[in-house]
Amino acid sequence: MGARRRLPESFYLRDAATVARDLIGRWLRRDSVILEITEVEAYLPDDSACHGRFGRTARNAAMWGPGGRAYVYLCYGLHDMLNVVTGPEGEAAAVLIRSARPVAGLEEVQVRRGGKSGPVLLTGPGKVGAALALDPSWSHHALFERGGLELLSGEPAERWLHGPRVGIDYAAPVDRDALLRFAAVDTPWVSHRKTLRSG
DNA sequence: ACAAGGATCCTCT
DNA sequence: GAGGATCCTTGTT
């Protein structure tokens, strides 16, 4: 297994769906905690499910910036959700990290997740945010720079599952049905498995 | 200034 | 399978 290095800024300067697929199997590292990404969703410009659909606001400003930065927002008043911003400055696009598998720092993750174990520990975007102890102040943090939260290379997945995104019933039908959710094959570390198909 | 609702999670049945 | 937690963001008045 080769050494994992931080992915370069150019990795993120592509469309969100492409980056989303390419994130499966990569690693997120914060200090001693390392998580392997197993499930993601892409949110695009001109997407009625995307937070950018009302234009640039204080909350979503990071989404409008250049790719490679974090966008963390508070959901339902209590869950911190981690997104990876993609594409060029001036368009709102990002990839939501929905699930992950623990690689290192399992004990720390369990402390942050109330002592849970097994897939329930990290299958869901709010759980990933909790496991990495993130909050909205992490928005704009550069994932390709050393320190804090980093995104590391590795072997990208050759195959994946895809399906509709979760929790966006308010969106237009064409966006609700779009296959913009991607997940690793053959792993229990994925949420809402029933609506996933091989891609 | 206000009301509505949300890219979820946990517990209980 | 259903409902409550919990509070910020957004669009509207």
Task: Tell me what the structure shows.
By secondary structure, the chain is α+β, with helices and mostly antiparallel strands. The chain has helices at residues 16-23, 61-64, 106-112, 125-131, 173-177; strands spanning 27-30, 33-43, 70-75, 79-85, 94-104, 149-152, 161-163, 181-183, 197-198. Strands 1, 2, 3, 4, 5, 6, 7, 8 and 9 form a nine-stranded antiparallel sheet that branches. It starts with 15 loop residues before the first helix and ends with a strand. The chain binds a DNA duplex (13 and 13 nucleotides) through residues 41, 43, 49-51, 54, 57-60, 73-79, 81, 83, 96, 98, 124-127, 165-168, 170-171.
What secondary-structure arrangement, pairings included, does this model have?
Elements (H helix, E strand, L loop, with lengths): L15 H8 L3 E4 L2 E11 L17 H4 L5 E6 L3 E7 L8 E11 L1 H7 L12 H7 L17 E4 L8 E3 L9 H5 L3 E3 L13 E2 L1
The protein binds a DNA duplex (13 and 13 nucleotides) through strand 3, strand 4 and helix 4.
Name a few traits of the molecule.
16% helix, single chain, globular, 199 residues, alpha+beta, DNA-binding, 5 helices
